[in-house]
Amino acid sequence: MKIIVDQDKCVASGQCVTAAVDVFDQRDEDGIVVLLNDNPPEDLAADVHQAAAVCPALAIVVED
Amino acid sequence: MTTPVYPMARAEGCPFDPPPKLRELQDEAPLVKVQVFDKTAWLVTRYADQRKLLADPRLSADVTAPGHPSQTAMAPQSGEGVGIGFILMDDPEHARLRRMVTAPFMIKRVEAMRPAVQKIVDGLIDDLLAGPKPVDLMEAFALPVPSLVICELLGVPYADHDFFQVNSKQLISLTATPEERGQAHGNLGAYLYNLVGEKLENPGGDLLSGLTERVKAGQLTKQDAAGMGVLLLLAGHETTANMIALGTLALLEHPSQLAVLQDTDDPKVVAGAVEELLRYLNITHNGRRRAVLEDIEFDGQLIKAGEGLIFPNDIGNRDPSAFPDPDTLDLHRDARHHVAFGFGVHQCLGQPLARMELQVVYSTLYRRIPTLRRAAELAEIPFKHDGSVYGVHSLPVTW
């Protein structure tokens, strides 16, 4: 699994953090997405896909 | 065939369901021409299409863009000044302004507020239990919760909470005259302007103090910072209050679902219940609205520049292709992909705070008052059919 985030597109809704807290974080100054792990273990795959699906800005791409 | 007029009426006796005409149109076609005041616009009826188009940068949220199917029922004082205007702007200016107020709504910052929100909710329930019954839950609980939480968020000193609550209630009152609402708006704007001045001198950890950094850097005026405070109040007060009151009424009408919340102390179950109630109730029931900036080829249909689009999230969230058995309230379903907060770059900024408040309320109120029940017939409860935010005007309860 390979995750790519686009910080320019991100609108800081925080939904990725709620979906997969071990993979996504938010930067302190404005809540924009920070990727903690671009290749997380398989057992987090469902959460990561959920994060990408609920991102309102389509700022998360997951390549399996 | 005549062009249907939007918005449509709900069915008698079905206060939690979208208008039946919307379901009919959803079944018929993905795009339907509707009449909105003196204009026509395209209604995007299906869930997947709503998400796809709301994320399309060829659409504009600017109400002055040609073809924008604007909603005259909007808060009459909105649209003035930078602070309140970014929800009606497009990127990149929208993104620049929005990012100035996103930090306080970060998941970790919102989680840090949870104990304070729990205290507010517990305090109001203490007052309910000590007071007379029946009582109007809207007035005594649902409206004060978000008002006090916004005080906490903005850093309004405790001594000013009453002033803040009285004026914020007046600001969203449907029975107040436009002059009274305008006066409340002015009072709050002036109050927040002064508070920004105080925070410039003595900053704390609150949202307004954070904005004073931008004021010092010359990115915002004091007036803009105060305006953003008013916007957050407008956006977060009535919406949350209605989710509390309408959500409570829906749960009282679905006792097996109420029991789910009464019987659990699992935060995941509570969080899932909040998502399902957001999906099911759709208190923003007049649709998201956009103007088309460039021609869009969609599903064999040309949507032309200068036309308007309306996204009725209420029927989107009841689309059976996204939510099986969509008209059933099922707190155990996975509803996290709902569009109750909208979709695209304008999706609700305050959603993490709204979720947390609702999680605290729904996990506390019905456990502390397990015999809570309606103190009026359902048919006597006044619903806000005409409001831009759906809900109840009042909800008499007893226990």
Automatic annotation (TrEMBL), chain A:
Key word Cell wall biogenesis/degradation present: no
InterPro entries: 3Fe4S_ferredoxin, Fe-S_cluster_ET
Keywords: 3Fe-4S, Electron transport, Iron, Iron-sulfur, Metal-binding, Transport
Listed cofactors: [3Fe-4S] cluster
Record carries keyword Electron transport: yes
GO molecular function: 3 iron, 4 sulfur cluster binding; electron transfer activity; iron ion binding
Function: Ferredoxins are iron-sulfur proteins that transfer electrons in a wide variety of metabolic reactions.
Protein name in the entry: Ferredoxin
Source organism: Kribbella sindirgiensis
TrEMBL record, chain B:
InterPro entries recorded: Cyt_P450, Cyt_P450_B, Cyt_P450_CS, Cyt_P450_sf
Keywords: Heme, Iron, Metal-binding, Monooxygenase, Oxidoreductase
Superkingdom classification of source: Bacteria
Molecular function as annotated in GO: heme binding; iron ion binding; monooxygenase activity; oxidoreductase activity, acting on paired donors, with incorporation or reduction of molecular oxygen
PROSITE patterns: CYTOCHROME_P450
Protein family (similarity comment): Belongs to the cytochrome P450 family.
Protein's name according to its UniProt entry: Cytochrome P450
Source organism of the structure: Kribbella sindirgiensis
